[in-house]
Amino acid sequence: MRLSEDFLLRVKESNDIYDVISSYVPLKKTGTDYVCNCPFHSEKTPSCHIYTATQSFYCFGCGAAGDVINFIRLYEHLDYIESVKFLAQRVGIPMPEDGGDDGAKKRSRTLEMNREAGRFFHKYLYSPAGKEGLDYLYGRGLTDHTIRTYGLGYAPDSWDTLRNHMHTLGYGDAEMAEASLLSKSSKSDNYFDFFKYRVMFPFIDIRGNIVGFSGRIIGGDDNRKYLNTKATAVYNKSTFLYSLNHAKNAGGSSLIMCEGNLDVIAMFQAGFKNAVATCGTAITDAHARTIANLGFKKIILAYDSDDAGQKATARAMNILDKVGITANVLTIQGAKDPDEYIKNFGKEAFELLIGNSESGMEYELKKLRSSVDLTTPEGKSEYLKKAVDFIANINSSIDRAVYISTIAQECNVNRSNVDLAVNQILRRRYKAKENDRRREIIGGTRSRDKINPDAMRYPVETQAERGIIAFLFHSPDFLKKITDKISSDDFVTDFNKRLFIDLTAMISCGLSNDVAVLSERYTAEEVASIYKLIHDNSDLPYNVDRLNDYLNVLIKYRDKKQTKKVTDMSADELRQFADKIKNKKS
Fold first, then answer.
1. CB 312 within 8 A of CB 259
2. H helix or E strand, kind and range, residue 254
3. Which positions ≥6 away from 167 have C-beta within 8 Å?
4. Pairing of strands 298-301, 254-258
5. Fewer CB within 10 Å: N-end or C-end of the chain?
6. Distance between CA atoms of residues 354 and 180, nearest Å
7. Dist CA 445 CA 188 (whole Å)
C-alpha cells in the first residue's frame, strides 16, 4: 500500500511521540526533553532520549532510533503499514482504502478467530456437555466470578467440534491452523482441533485481545499436561505474560511471578491481583524489559519449591537484575506452590509470607551456606570462595560493599581480604574483556555496521557519504549543488548509495524530506540507522565549506579509481580520458 505524504504527516502530527512512548515506558524529564530505560535492550541507567522538538527518539546504548512510526514498528514487532495503521486507529484517522495490507489483515483476522474461539470454549464450559471441565475448575476452588473474569473455557473430547463451529462463522481450515486453533495431519492432510479434552485458559494481552490459549488436560491419553498455542501472528511466548492485563490495572510497583496459570488465578481470587506467569518458557530478557517498561520496580519470585523451581529462580534473578528490577524470593514450606499454600494456610498466611520474602542476593547466599559446613575450616574456605565469586557478579558497588562486610563477619575474617579477593576477580574479568576488545580491533571485527557492512572498508568515504546525506535532510535546497558534482555512482557503500538515490528522487519530486516518507522502503533497523546518521551529524555546521569537503572526498576516490584503470584502457579510451581531463582543467 502506497501512502501519501499528507496522510503520513497527519498521522505523525496526531501522535505526539511523548504521548505514545509514555504509554509504554515511564519517561523522566531532563531539560526540554525526556529520557527512559531503553525498551529495546536491557539496562539500568536511562540511555534512550525522546526529543519532542524533532518528534524522534534515539538510544545511545543500542542505537534504536526513529520517529513515532518506527517506535511502534520496533516495540510492537509490526511492519511499516501495520504500524501506520496502529497509530491511525489510535487517533481515529481512517486508513486509505487499499487491499494490500496483508500483515495487518492477518493479525486482525487471527484476533477475530481467537475471540470467537474463546467465546465458544467459555459457552461450552457452562453447557451440559462441559460439566466435566466445570467440575474440575470448581474442584480447584475457583468461583464463577473468577472463571468469568479470566474467560476460562472447555475444549470438548472431540476432533472437530471447534472446527465445525468456526466454519459456520466463515473461517477456513488453513487460516485456523495458522492461528494454532487447528492441526493438520501429516498422513492424510486432514484438519482437526488443536485443543481437545482440556480446560482452556485464554491468553489476554494488556489491550484486552485474546492472543492465544493454554489447555490443561483433564482426560484422554494425551500425556501433555498443558498444551499452549504455537507462535502465531499475534502470539510469542517469549514476550507474553499471563494475567499482565490484570496486574497492570491493579496498581502498585511490584509483581508476583509464579510458574502456572492456576497459581496466578488462585492468587487473584485471594486478592493478590498483581500475579503473573510465563507460558511454556522460562523468563526471558524480553519479559524483563516488558515488566520494566510498565514501571514495575520489584518482583517477588514465587516459583515451586522443587529443584526446577530453584533453578528458575536463579535464572530469573539474573535476568531481572539486568534491567534494574529488585528480585525477592518467596520460600514456600508446607506446600509445593502458591495455589496449594493458599488452600492449606489461607490468604493471611500467604500475605505474611510475601512480607517476609528474602532479597535475591540473601537467598543465593543462603543456598551457598546450606551446601557447606561452616563449623570446619574446609567448609568456611569453600563458602568464602563461592561467596566471593557470587559477590563479584553483583553490579552495584554499594551492594557489593554491604555483602563483603556480611561475608567477612560470618566467617570471622578481615574485611580487606574479602574485598581484595572480589577485586581480583573483577580486574581479571575486565582484563579479559580488554583483550577481547583488542582482538576485535586487530581482527577488524569491531564496530561492524550490520546495516552498511561496506563502511569498515571505506571509513573516510563512508563519513563523507553520511555528511552529504545529512545535508540533504537538513537543507534539501543543496540538491543541485551536490548533483552537479557527484552522482549516486560515486557512492562507495551500497546502503548509503541506495539512500542517496531514494532521497534525491524524493526531493526532486517535491516531496517532504521527512524520513517517514522513505520508511516504507526500509526495515525498522534501517530506519533507525538513518536517524542515527541524522543525529550524529546534527551538531555539525551546515555550510558550503563543509559540504565541499565531503564532496571532494568522493571526487578524489572516484578519480583515484579511474586512474587505476588507465593501464587497462585501449588507445581510444585513453584519448577520451585525456580529453575529459583537459575539459575539466579548462
1. yes
2. strand 254-258
3. none
4. parallel
5. C
6. 37
7. 51
What length does the chain have? 586
Taking the C-alpha atoms of residue 69 and residue 13, their distance in angstroms, rounded to an integer, is 11
101, three cell numbers: 495490507
φ and ψ of 422, to 5 deg: -65, -45
The set of cell numbers assigned to 83 is 504500524
Q: Dmax over Cα atoms in the chain, in whole Å? A: 98
What's the rounded mean pLDDT across residues 284-301?
Answer: 85
The residue assigned the cell 593501464 is: 567
- Banded pLDDT at 225 (limits 50, 70, 90): very high
Query: What radius of gyration do the chain's Cα atoms show?
Result: 30
- Average of per-residue pLDDT values in the chain: 87
Would you say 353 and 340 are in contact if contact means Cβ atoms under 8 Å apart?
Answer: no
Give every CB contact of residue 443 below 8 A, 6+ residues apart in sequence.
none
Sheet of strand 210-217: strand arrangement: 153-155, 198-204, 210-217, 226-228
Q: Are 5 and 517 in contact (CB under 8 A)?
A: yes
In terms of Cα–Cα distance, which of 346, 347, 248, 359 is closest to 301? 359
Place of cell 516518507: 517
Q: Whole-angstrom Cα distance, residue 376 to residue 384? A: 12
Which residue type does 311 have? K
| Single-letter code of the amino acid located at 494 | D
Strand partners, 28: 35
Give the span between the Cα atoms of 546 and 239, in whole angstroms: 46
Residue 348 near residue 355, CB atoms below 8 Å: no
Residue 201 has phi, psi (to 5 degrees) of -115, 105
517 with 511: CB under 8 angstroms?
A: yes
